[in-house]
């Protein structure tokens, strides 16, 4: 059985679409576990229309996911964000892959984005650059025993916890596979200000990233995937330019968040 674990916080606008995409999977041997973080909207109420396994746990998504994993009954774990929608064959594709090669204990599921407005198109453009980039893509589907044996997600991290987990899987010589079926990520309406604020918040936690010994290649500004996809920049120059602007705002936000955390320590 596959345990589908969804972490939520005020996701009433998205959670129904997410859970419905799970119930419509071609493979039906699964359980749905929703771990909410003190939502003030109808997230829990809507979730209970799909599953009776709705819990409350905080303060961040890593803690929520680990709680869901420990509560689960499945042999396999699939972690999904509430603003994601699964294509129909994802569960079956993951299970077929690990059955075909029993040495595979974690699976990468490719992701593409959609949303409202120009900056959502830019984010979708960015995500398309990262397909098959091993320093960006990280597994979401795990053998439960392996996941728990390496400690699950690092609960000190408020971002990049998926990269940290992938790095620890690598250190543990765990074989990771990849399917071709997509997860669709609803970015909603993105703005430069919201992107800046998000990265600023993540930046305040950056000392824990260093302590977690994340691979430097995870955080490089210039990636080989940009060069590999140079034709996309030529064919869609407006999105390419928007990408440069968006990354500038995000990088600045992360840096200033880091500076802010240093100031608070003094």
From TrEMBL:
Domain Glycosyltransferase 2-like span(s) in chain numbering: 3-129
Gene3D superfamilies on file: Spore Coat Polysaccharide Biosynthesis Protein SpsA, Chain A
Entry superkingdom: Bacteria
Pfam families the record matches: Glycos_transf_2
Protein name: Glycosyltransferase 2-like domain-containing protein
